[in-house]
Specification:
The protein is an alpha+beta fold and 240 residues long. 39% of the residues lie in helices and 16% in strands. It has helices at 7-15, 18-30, 43-66, 74-80, 96-110, 122-130, 190-194, 198-202, 224-229; strands at residues 138-144, 153-159, 163-168, 173-177, 181-187, 211-216. A 6-stranded antiparallel β-sheet has the order 4-3-2-1-5-6, covered by helices on one side. A hairpin with a 4-residue loop joins strand 3 (163-168) and strand 4. Helix 1 packs across helix 2. The protein is rod-shaped, with a radius of gyration of 40 Å.
């Protein structure tokens, strides 16, 4: 046997001719795949384990889809700044169309129709007013424990549980606490607003027959969503 000859070829050469031995060696030995017994666990058990794991993952994903998204925490809201109004958006004229839209909303609530006299009483309108959404309303402070707030007026851009945030005509964002504060707002007649431009509305031209309401912030400490479903009862206020 030479140094470069395969041992199997030498053994075949003793029983066959060189051509036959070479042919058998090439077909049966050189090109024959070597099948080794796997040392890993039974593939059937592995497949069953992977199948069970896949079923668990699918079940978990399905239950996760049914769950409601978790609300953001107060810290996450502060970090993301989702409720902050950018400086470039703190302009009074931007929110004048929102105020006009709010007037249409409050007219519908009170049953005020253009060209028709509407009778609005405190008993009938009180429960509707306190349940209304004040985003877009134009409020002014008439009385407050903090004297520096008296006289401030603007369009509400955010109504929280304890505060109103307004944009004043000077393009300033002000936060007004509801506690110990009395707010006033006026609702003009639909006929007046239909003939009034946005500039006149921004200047506060309400007409002579505008309805004047006052909100006592101490009794108004509810979020807009909560007020929509809350039933308010008439009662005397301690501060009056």
């Amino acid at each position: 046997m030479t140094a470069n000859t395969h041992v199997a070829l030498d053994i075949l050469g003793k029983a066959h001719s060189p051509e036959t031995a070479s042919s058998i060696f090439t077909e049966k030995i050189l090109h024959k795949p070597l099948r080794l017994r796997p040392t890993s666990p039974d593939p059937n058990s592995q497949d069953a384990r992977a199948h069970r794991r896949l079923q668990r993952l699918r079940k978990r994903e399905k239950s996760r889809r049914r769950e409601k998204p978790k609300p953001l925490s107060a810290k996450e809201k502060r970090v993301t700044g989702i409720y902050e109004i950018p400086k470039q958006s703190q302009k009074y004229e931007i929110y004048v169309p929102l105020y006009r839209m709010w007037l249409g909303y409050i007219w519908e609530i009170l049953g005020m129709v253009k060209g028709k006299q509407a009778w609005v009483t405190a008993q009938a309108a009180g429960s509707k007013i306190v349940s209304a959404d004040f985003h877009g309303a134009k409020l002014s402070v008439v009385r407050s424990k903090c004297v520096s707030l008296v006289g401030l007026e603007g369009i509400v851009v955010r109504d929280t549980k304890f505060t109103f945030q307004i944009i004043t005509e000077r393009n300033e964002l002000k936060t007004l606490p509801k506690n110990h504060t009395i707010f006033q707002f006026q609702i003009p007649q639909p006929d007046i607003v239909a003939e009034t431009s946005d500039k006149d509305i921004a200047d506060g031209d309400m007409g002579a027959n505008a309805l004047v309401f006052e909100l006592h912030g101490d009794a108004f400490e509810h979020r807009a969503v909560e007020r929509a479903t809350k039933k308010f009862k008439q009662r005397n206020l301690a501060g009056l």
